[in-house]
Amino acid sequence: MARALYSLILILATPLILLRLLWRARRQPEYLKHLGERWGHYETPVDGPFIWVHAVSVGETRAAQPLIEALRNAWPDHRILLTGMTPTGREAALTVYGDQVVTAYLPYDQSVAVDRFFRHFSPAFGVLMETEIWPNLLATAKRRGVPVVLANARLSVRSARGYGRVPALARPAFSALAAVAAQTPADAGRLAALGAPGVTVCGNIKFDVTPAPEKVALGEQWRGAIGRRPVWLAASTREGEEALILEAWKQIGVPGALLILVPRHPQRFDEVAEMLRTAAVTFRRRSDALPTPETAVWLGDSMGEMAAYYSCADLAFIGGSLLPLGGQNLIEAAACGCPVLVGPHTFNFLKATEDAIAAGAALRVGDAAALGEAVRELLNDAPRLSAMRAATLTFANAHRGATARTLALIRSVVKSSV
Fold first, then answer.
1. Which of 37, 60, 91, 130 is flagged as catalytic?
2. In which domain, by residue range, is 357 found?
3. 346-371: pLDDT as tens digits
């Protein structure tokens, strides 16, 4: 009954969904491409068999790389169908995987649409990355005998509380999973409490992502062009944070320091550029040119180059954590050997952040003023910064192995379907 009501609401919401797509297309026209796929209408030829992996957007798409490679090696006669929900995620899939995968949008969670999805692709089994729980999708997969594993699974206290408010809808969805590979024991406990079966702590697959050598080389090339200037990076910043970061930057007082500012969402690149202009900050855009000695801020308006930015910087602040947005992941920074600063709000990646702080690879600051002070102190303390850099690499290497554990769990539950 609960799922029937949920399905009815989704159908009635179709005009609002279309309006939202039109609204988002003002900044990203790509939202209006492949529109039929969002309701389960596909033109992609079926030349499977397929293993289906769902990664909702850019971060999950890139994080899935080691697992997708492991799945391709384990089932070489199957193709990987990689679904997502955003144009930037789809673009990232093409950049990272090229023609090694088939890309498509996963349809909205309407019963008819997801049924069309399964009829078209007939995947042998599915892997959902991180926290993608859709009642109709999982019910249809179970009815069709398609095992679905939730991999690299994380569930915050806030999200668990939200699911707990609708047990009649959430519990059947979680129980329809074949197994769950959780990132941490805390995640595992919350997922099991909601009815997920076969919950196993496998760790975080993102630790197994190796920075692309060509991106690391690009960052080193940038660093050579920048010279001996101190460089700090504000990575994956969110709306409202850039103004705070600029205030912190003004207080640093380190001669010649360069700030590399990389907003998380590409649709905000122009907005942040205008903010820098209004603030009379001397800046250049990555898409235009390298920074000159007079450049105070280099605006990172590019996609897929975060490893290059980390490899170029002496120190990185991880965005989404100054404001109560939950923070972004610091694992890629650690893999690149870049010391990390985070704000007070890191509930989206709490375990990885706390482990990094305990390992000496990261430092937490309470607000923008404290961020500026920490940047100033670290850029003026080469031995301390060097020790943090060594700690980041040690921290990253110590947490590898989640991909192999996740693959073993997947093998244990999909034997009869492939």
1. 60
2. 213-398
3. 988 888 999 999 999 999 999 999 99
